[in-house]
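Usage

Read records sequentially. Each one opens with the input sequence:
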Amino acid sequence: MSNKKSFVAKIEEAILRFTKPDYMDSKEKAEEFLKNKSSSNPPKSIFKSIDCDGVQIFTFGDENAKNTILYVHGGAYIGEINYQHLLYCILLSRKLDAHVLAPVYPLAPLHKAEETYGIITGLYKRLIQRNNIILMGDSAGGGFIHSFCQYLKTVNLPQPDKIITFSPWVDISMSNPPYNSKDDPILGEIGLKEIGKSWAGDLNTQDYRVSPLFGDNTNLADTLVFAGENEIFYSDIKKYVENLKKDGVNVKLVTGCELFHIYPLFPIPEAKDAFKEIRNEIMG
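and closes with the structure output:
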């Protein structure tokens, strides 16, 4: 990948800085946000969805496609799935011969991690008879995917064929400072700590089910991880990748030079390079 950030990426970053939520850098505003947050609704209209045991799941592509992708969206466990996620799922389905499923899982502060485990486990059980199962996720969703794959071993369910994540939130306790909130145009350490505690509920924030950095990665599937060099999670992601290597996992980390959080999901040239990596990983 290029060692120089594109002009389009610079513009995108400037826009993100302008729209960065104020609760990301203020404990008081984060607490107020969580206190006042009510349930939100996912996008509607043109996107096909099904109801599975009371859970809405957006679906893309043919059920008989070569690959099956379960995509868990990001949003710091407080943000609903949005058009950015759904459009990316369309891209995955069309370019990778994939049937993509993106569940609308329950979010903090009204819901906790353990509730989502039940939902994703139920969905996963419906998919395990298929070939070429890929688990994907961005940000919080990426962190959840890594934790979920560790969890699968404890309930005697098979691993997916591949794991692919973008900027995964691997430590919701944010226990490895210093974190460079200033350079991250989307996220902030202070707000993330408060949100992390809300999502964990009765779990310790360093429980592997919410923070895969502290879990056992042995016998996990081949893993591809993307991270932006300037994002707040970068140091934690690098540490987690080293854990994967120590546990014997075949893992590759792709770093976006000077890039921001979940950069592969944005309409920038660097995202095209990232997609080539994904295609090579899945299609060979």
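Summary fields computed downstream for this record:
- The longest helix spans residues 113-127.
- Strands lie at 49-52, 55-60, 67-72, 98-103, 133-138, 162-166, 222-228, 251-256.
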